Each structure stands twice: as structure tokens, then as C-alpha cells.
Input
Amino acid sequence: PPSGANPMYFSMGNWDNGEFDRFPEWKGVTFTGIPSNTNGCKSMLDAMRARDMKGGIALTVPGQMADRRPDGTLDFNMNKYKALVDRVAAVPNLASYVADKTFELFCFGDELQHPKWNGTIPPNTRKEMAKYAKQTLPAGVIICVRMPSDRLSGSHLPTGGWGGFLDAGWAQYTGPFRSASIGMTATQFCTSERTAMLALGIPHIIL
Output
């Protein structure tokens, strides 16, 4: 990835059912949501560190931070979400895993505008989610959400913008919600998203 003043650009390589595989040589850890307790979080980070794996991402999944209705739709529960953040933050000496790049990103949501959320999670609630993660986790953790720029701007933009709490958008060049990338090559999409994210005050992109 570029360094210096340029926005970060991460090539995801492969993401399938929770697997985060930033580069081919970094394999062996599957993320299917935040582990059920702090010890589980620590064990995962220790396993990565033992293999000298970098770029770890903590990815929330909907069932961990919602109440499910009989029809299968979800009602977001802020208390459950904050408990997930607190669980990761409670890992002893978490800052050391951040410093050596074992743990780099906290993704607080995936497609938060999806109809499964019983009318979507409102933009201002998303901002509060980013704010809580930013203020709770160690400095240096990149706070991201898995949504492209067209779902982080316009009617999706929180009041007053993102306030510096959202560091990255996971832009999804391919996938079920890829309207922003239709008709573009990966390079064109990367350039477009970088420009759009910067205009929103979001310094990083993930594809």
C-alpha cells in the first residue's frame, strides 16, 4: 500500500464468509464476527502474531449487535454493539497488537443500509457507532464500515459529516451492492472512491 501523505489503499485479495485475506501470504485466520469473549479475541491475535500475520480486522456481524424480529429483520441494539467494542478493547495490552500491525482495522458494520435492518440504521446512529469505536479502541486502529462512498454521502451523510470518527470505507468493487463500481475497472473505481472518500473527510479506502 502507498505510504506518506497519500490515502491508504488496501487490496483485499479475498473476502468470503468472513475470511479476511489481505495478501496471499497471510492466511489461516477466519473472522466470523467478534469472538464471544475477550480471551477469544486475545487468542486470535496471539495466533496471528505467532505466524507474523499483519492486517488483522475485527468485523462485527449483524446478529451480534441486533435484536431479531419474528420476520427475520433486525433491530439494531446500541448496547450490544458497544459490548462488542468493549470486548475487543479489553484485550490486555491491545495497543501492542496495534503497534506491530497485528490488529489494524475495526469494521463496525456491513451494509448498514440493507433492508434486513428493518428500515436501515440511520446515518447519525452510524456516526455514533464510529465515534464509540474511535474513542474506545487504542489510537492507530482504523475505524471502517463496509459501504461504498455513494452509501456514505448524500442522504446517508450524518448531520455535520463524519466528524473524523470514520477512517475508512470498505468500498466493495464486487459484491451484491456494487452500484458505485458498475461500468468501471478496478483501477478506475479505486481512483473514484479515493476522491469521493477524501471529499467526505474519510482518509482511507478498502476495496
Summary: The first strand starts at residue 9 and ends at 10. Confidence is low (pLDDT under 50) at residues 1-31. The chain has five helices and ten strands. The first helix runs from residue 38 to 50.
